[in-house]
Amino acid sequence: MSAPAVELTAQATVVLVGGHESDRGEALHALAQDSPLTRARACGQELEEAVRAALITSELPVCVVPMTLGRDPELVADTARTLAWVARTTGPPRIALAEPFGTAEHLIGWLRAAAGRAAVGAAGAAGAAGADPADVAILVTANPANPFDDAELFRIARLVQVQGRAPWVDVAFHGGDPDVQTGVDRCRRLGARRVALVPAGFAPAGGTEVAAAEAAGAVDAGPLLAPSAISGVLAARIQAAVDRLRAGDDGIAAGLDAEHGHGHTHSHTDGPAAHGHTHSHSHASGH
């Protein structure tokens, strides 16, 4: 973790919450290792315990950052529900919910940049005279989540293709439909000479599926964001959250609204299920 985010932990205890874009927090392990950042692998009880422990062990505010790249509004809303419950059972306001690490618009930009790098790299790896990035297909890979978040990735990939310079961009899911090998095969049938695998998550695209795809000639483009880029974004989210908390806004109310219009059938609770009632609202048509 580079200096900016670590320096900001002098202002708050920082908890990172993971979802499907970070392998349920496993991909955040390197961020929290050897730094003051705390990692919560899930919302609910694990997050509640992490926040309560932070409140007890330090007088600093606790800043919670939902580590989504823009495709997991459920993570944001679930985080807000957990924090709302904890905040009601603690003393003076010391809990701040930061804005999500990224939005769909951020993800489009990050994927465009990664796709450009991957296309040039894959063309060079071909080792053939006159290798051209235009011969390279970009296969965006992710863990399967739910129909809404998965469909959002197809929308994002289409915008990456339209707004960027990649001749085509496709999507595949690790162990999902289509899987990585199917995605590689489809790109080749469409005429791609090379296929570059770009992850839409915090972890590299790796795994047995990717190893098999590499053996068939695909190229693993590595992580979506460099550690320095992640650190810089975190620094901005933490600083903004701390500033808002000082102004009297803990960010929780905005987080509770994160799923609205996304298509999820979700629930508003007075806390974790064990602490309150639940009632569902369907927003499948958006509003």
List the helices and strands and how they pair.
Elements: H1 3-8, E1 13-18, H2 29-32, E2 38-40, H3 45-57, E3 62-67, H4 73-88, E4 95-97, H5 104-125, E5 136-142, H6 147-163, E6 169-173, H7 180-189, E7 194-199, H8 208-215, E8 219-220, H9 227-246, H10 252-256, E9 265-269, E10 278-282
Parallel strand pairs: 1-2, 1-3, 3-4, 5-6, 5-7, 7-8
Antiparallel strand pairs: 9-10
Helix pairs in contact: 3-4, 5-6
CATH architecture of the largest domain: 3-Layer(aba) Sandwich
CATH class of the largest domain: Alpha Beta
Beta content comes to: 15-25%
CA-based shape: elongated
| Strand element count | 10
Provide the gyration radius in Å: 20 Å
Low-confidence stretches: 1-6, 265-287
Major sheet: arrangement of strands: 2-1-3-4
How many domain modules? 2
Derived from helix and strand composition plus strand pairing, the structural class reads alpha/beta
Report mean pLDDT, rounded to a whole number: 84
What is the string of helix and strand elements? HEHEHEHEHEHEHEHEHHEE
